[in-house]
Design a protein that fits this description.
Distance between the termini: 42 Å
Order of helices and strands: EEEEEEHEEHHHEEHHHHHHEEHHHH
Helix content: 10-25%
Strand content: 5-15%
Bound molecules: heme C
Oligomer: single chain
Structural class: alpha+beta
Number of domains: 3
């Protein structure tokens, strides 16, 4: 997994924000930045005050190459109401660092390592160094069922600790969790209210915000049937997008296809009704639409794997993959087209 946190002095090339053109949002200098934070979608800037870090109030939108305000408003993240309005009174220790480091110690406010290091997923490694056998380290692949994905869910979910505040402090990450533990003992997921669009959820239960791959995935039949996050991703790094084990449709076709129980029946073109080499024949285009907002109009992919029908868009405003790609068309057009597709049931996709 890529490195999110970098020291700008050691890595000057990693600073993406434009500090040379004056901008009213940018009230700080590059020299004041202790850490840069983020390399893919957005970049935020940390400063050190006493023994804590704080996030400066402007962030860089990497795709749009522009500055945007950084501020968590009341009524958005659950913790906002428990902190003073002043950005410089919202330390990253309780609000961020538990997920962006290894072993953040809430008493000493120190970490063993910034970023997602081995021990965050494999547990403490000192015994393993002394005695390198399987029983001295956690291998997530050998954990029972959901305990394996809990290793990922400790960071890839929007949720709240069960105990809060802890010693008077509101943490936004599962303090005390260790790989192998039952995450739900200390952490609960943000609730979805059916039919309501909230900061975290679309009305149908799909994630509306980034860092919700876990909230989404626990709803999928794949999760129920024992396909784990590492069934598709190899977090030790691959040459493909998002550390996938195989690129494009190949990762899906490992388990799906007409001869497989998981389906879909028929050839690719029969299922998708687009030419095999079309953008409209990529599994993720229809089953993992980009609807979970990370910054401005940049979104990460849904992980419920549900096909969101155009009728759902008309009923409750959840974006559907057809008109997200066919931008000049209406949901009604897409519903009408779907009615002519042989493999589709109108009972399920409506119209
Ligand atoms: C984000 C979580 C995560 C991080 C970080 C991580 N691993 Fe893993 N590791 C896993 C998972 C999940 C598996 C099991 C599935 C697989 O092999 O991909 C695994 C499997 C392994 C295995 C294979 C064990 C076996 O018996 O086949 C080794 C070795 C390993 N990791 C070493 C490391 C080392 C060394 C690091 C640090 C450089 C590291 N891992 C960082 C999650 C992680
Ligand atoms: C300590 C917190 C943490 C844990 C544990 C963790 N992740 Fe992540 N993951 C992150 C962060 C932070 C990023 C963003 C990295 C970036 O922006 O470069 C990320 C990014 C990713 C990405 C996208 C990589 C890319 O290049 O687009 C995948 C896929 C992913 N994680 C899967 C997993 C899986 C699978 C597990 C469990 C085996 C896991 N993560 C465990 C924090 C974590
Ligand atoms: C519960 C764990 C968790 C907490 C708390 C958390 N993050 Fe993250 N963060 C993640 C994960 C996982 C990702 C990558 C997945 C995603 O964004 O969908 C991520 C992504 C990011 C990115 C985007 C990285 C990139 O390369 O574009 C930035 C920037 C970031 N976090 C900053 C913060 C800041 C600042 C805070 C505190 C205000 C914070 N995070 C709190 C887990 C967490
Ligand atoms: C490791 C095997 C495996 C891989 C890889 C895999 N699937 Fe699945 N998939 C399954 C299984 C098993 C089911 C459940 C089938 C059942 O219940 O009959 C399933 C179910 C589904 C469903 C039904 C809806 C739901 O609730 O999950 C969709 C859609 C789906 N997969 C899409 C995909 C896509 C898209 C990919 C590639 C990104 C993919 N799958 C990769 C095994 C896999
Ligand atoms: C153009 C859009 C589109 C593409 C691309 C697409 N699908 Fe689908 N898929 C659908 C629709 C629509 C349904 C729902 C059919 C129904 O419910 O009658 C569906 C249903 C499914 C189901 C059954 C869902 C369930 O809830 O049990 C599976 C499994 C599936 N697709 C897998 C795949 C795989 C694997 C790929 C890539 C090879 C893929 N799909 C590509 C539109 C698409
Ligand atoms: C069935 C396969 C499959 C499973 C299981 C799966 N993912 Fe993914 N994931 C994908 C695909 C495909 C992409 C998109 C790659 C692309 O954009 O080309 C993706 C993208 C991501 C990203 C990058 C964000 C984005 O949208 O670009 C993160 C982070 C991630 N997955 C985390 C997870 C975590 C955590 C789990 C388990 C809770 C998980 N994934 C389970 C297939 C899967
Ligand atoms: C990622 C982009 C993408 C997605 C998602 C997508 N399509 Fe398409 N679609 C295309 C492209 C590109 C073409 C042009 C012909 C081709 O490549 O097959 C097309 C062609 C079509 C056509 C025939 C030409 C026309 O415009 O009348 C219809 C009908 C259609 N799509 C319906 C749908 C429906 C319904 C869905 C949702 C289930 C959907 N498409 C999802 C990209 C997409």
């Amino acid at each position: 997994m890529a490195r999110v946190i970098l020291d700008p002095v050691a890595h000057p090339d990693a600073v993406l924000g434009d500090f040379s053109t004056p901008n009213p949002l940018v009230t700080f200098r590059k020299e004041d930045v202790a850490f840069i934070y983020g390399t893919k979608w957005k970049q935020r800037y940390f400063t050190r005050r006493g023994d804590d870090y704080f996030v400066f109030p402007a962030q860089w939108d990497i795709e749009a190459k522009t500055w945007r305000r950084y501020y968590v408003e009341p009524g958005t993240d659950w913790w906002a109401e428990h902190y003073p309005a002043d950005q410089m009174q919202r330390p990253t220790g309780p609000l961020c660092d538990g997920c962006h480091s290894v072993n953040y110690d809430i008493k000493t406010k120190k970490v063993t390592e910034w970023n997602v290091g081995c021990e965050k997923c494999h547990g403490a490694g000192s015994l393993h160094v002394q005695n390198p056998i399987a029983s001295t380290i956690v291998n997530p692949a050998k954990l029972q069922g959901e305990r394996a994905d809990d290793v990922c869910l400790q960071c890839h979910t929007q949720g709240q600790p069960r105990t809060k505040p802890l010693d008077g402090v509101y943490y936004d990450w599962p303090v005390g969790y260790q790989p192998g533990d039952r995450l739900s003992d200390v952490w609960m997921l943000e609730e979805h209210q059916l039919g309501k669009e909230t900061f975290t959820h679309w009305p149908d239960g799909n994630a509306h915000k980034n860092r919700m791959q876990g909230n989404d995935y626990v709803q999928s039949q794949m999760s129920v049937k024992g396909v784990r996050c590492y069934g598709c991703h190899d977090v030790h790094g691959t040459k493909y997008e998002a550390d996938l084990r195989l690129p494009g449709n190949a990762i899906c076709m490992e388990c799906h296809g007409p001869q497989r129980q998981a389906g879909p029946p028929g050839t690719l073109e029969q299922h998708t009704q687009h030419k095999a080499d079309s953008e409209g024949s990529k599994c993720i285009a229809c089953h993992m639409p980009q609807i979970a907002r990370t910054i401005a109009n940049v979104n990460v992919r849904s992980h419920t794997f549900k096909f969101i029908s155009p009728t759902t868009t008309e009923q409750s405003g959840v974006p559907n993959p057809c008109t997200a790609c066919h931008k000049d068309r209406t949901p009604q057009w897409a519903s009408d087209a779907l009615k002519k597709w042989p493999g589709v049931s109108t009972w399920r996709v409506g119209g």
